[in-house]
Amino acid sequence: MSAALKVTAESGIFDEQLHDLKTRFEAMMPELETVVRDPALGVEGYIVVWNTGISVGGPMERSGKGGTRITQNVTLDEIKMLARTMALKNAAAGLPLGGSKSGLRADPAAPDFEKKYRRFVKLCAPFLRENGGPFGGFGFDIGGRPEHALWACDELKSTSCFTGKPVSMGGTDYDREGIAGLGVAVAGRAMMDIHGVDVASSTFAIQGMGAMGAAVFRYFSETGARLQALADPKYGGTWMLRTAPGTALKEALTRQDVDAVIKLLPQEADKISDDCEAVLYVDADILYPCAVQNVLTETNSVKVMARFVCEGANGPCTEEARTKLYERGIHLVPDFIANAGGVIAAFVELTSKGSNKAEEAKAMTRQKVEANVRELYELVERHHCEPQQAGLYMALSKVLVVT
Asked: Would you call 142 helix, strand, or coil by DSSP?
């Protein structure tokens, strides 16, 4: 058989295997799907857990993990979708851990929020892993704030119920340490290195300078790469840097000191648009979309000028956009491969007996994310498939080891 025919045959087998895995995954049902309510306090919350079979034999046997989303409009369907994504993310990261997500329908800024939050965690307590259930515990997601860890641990008299806690409480403090963003920065660097690009002399652009984007900026800058452009509504739109950010601006961006950034940006950058979409189309080596989902679509992805895209937000590219980018020769790392740092840190926090869990989580994030990106592109090269398909194959083949 010629080399070309061998590649075609192998690709056909890969496509068949991936199709079978997708079909089996779609047929899976959540292992826990529950609504908790206290009508008197106006509390409504959700817990969903998927795929705990993958954790059998591991340190968190028969449990799943993910963060806690808090918005006024969160729904059970949204939490089901997010928990399902966490099952993929955890498996792709190589963790023996099912996927889970919890959610609370509430306004974190409301005067009575603490009372509602404390009641929510109390209602969820019977489902916690430490109490014999499959729910690995609470954590940070949209709407999360540092004090939530303190409230949950105080209310439940446990430090095992919440991940992302301060180091002083035996946690990794992964939000402040930016461990999720560290993983995304490592993924971007690994992807560029695989394709022979000198990261130290490269430029990058970030959409969304919240916790994720600020951490990506912090860690990717350490490679020597230069921030070319950034965008965030709290900074007034899209800005193009004239040179590498000065020390004061760099520190302000990393700390998310809004007032300081707003003061310093005009001194070092030019505003090119009042909206945050323009940053997606700047001429930089790598683009990090770290804001919200579906910002790159089939329609606007044709305007992307970066050679590389590394997803920091959850689903910033639609499936059609990922295909268009691939067809144009733009390399990509999908979100569930790139931004696994948060759950890796959560896993370390819940299972390690070490004295410095934050540094242990960073080391594990660097090792696992880089290895996974290299495995991803080995599959892409071997089967001539899109990175999204290679990533799905990696994740689903682990999810479905136990059926």
From this structure: coil
Q: How far apart are CA 17 and CA 273, in angstroms?
A: 45
Q: Which residue has the tokens 């070309």?
A: 4
Are 93 and 373 spatial neighbours (Cβ–Cβ below 8 Å)?
no
Q: Which of 65, 80, 89, 101 is catalytic?
A: 101
Of the candidates 246, 190, 235, the one whose C-alpha atom is nearest the C-alpha of residue 209 is 235
CA 163/CA 129 separation, integer angstroms: 13
Task: Give 162's DSSP letter.
Answer: B
Q: Is 373 helix (H, G, I), strand (E, B) or coil?
A: helix
Q: Chain-wide mean pLDDT for the chain?
A: 93
CATH of domain 179-340: 3.40.50.720
Alpha helices in 69-195 (DSSP H): 76-92, 113-124, 146-156, 174-177, 179-194
Q: Which residue stretches of 30-126 are H helix?
A: 76-92, 113-124
Tokens of 45: 């919350």
Q: Could you tell me which residues are beta bridge partners of residue 206? A: 230, 288
**Is 362 considered catalytic here?**
no
Q: 31-157 and 179-340: same fold? A: yes
Q: Kindly report the pTM of this predicted structure.
A: 0.90
Q: Which of 238, 229, 242 is nearest to 203 (CA)?
A: 229
For 403, half-sphere exposure in the C-beta direction (CA atoms, 13 angstrom radius) is 12
Say which CATH superfamily domain 31-157 falls into: Leucine Dehydrogenase, chain A, domain 1 (3.40.50.10860)
**Sequence-ordered list of residues with C-beta below 8 angstroms from that of 39, at least 6 positions apart, any chain:** none
Residue 402's CB: how many other CB atoms inside 10 A?
Answer: 12
What are the pLDDT digits (tens) for 320-345?
999 999 999 999 999 999 999 999 99
Quote the longest CA-to-CA distance of the chain: 72
Higher pLDDT residue, 316 or 403? 316
202-221 pLDDT, tens digit each: 999 999 999 999 999 999 99
pLDDT at 316: 94
Beta strands 64-65 and 43-50: pairing type?
unpaired
For the chain, domain boundaries = 31-157, 179-340
- State how beta strands 269-273 and 286-289 pair: unpaired
Q: For 134-144, what is the mean pLDDT? A: 93
Cα–Cα–Cα angle for 326, 327, 331, rounded to 5 degrees: 25
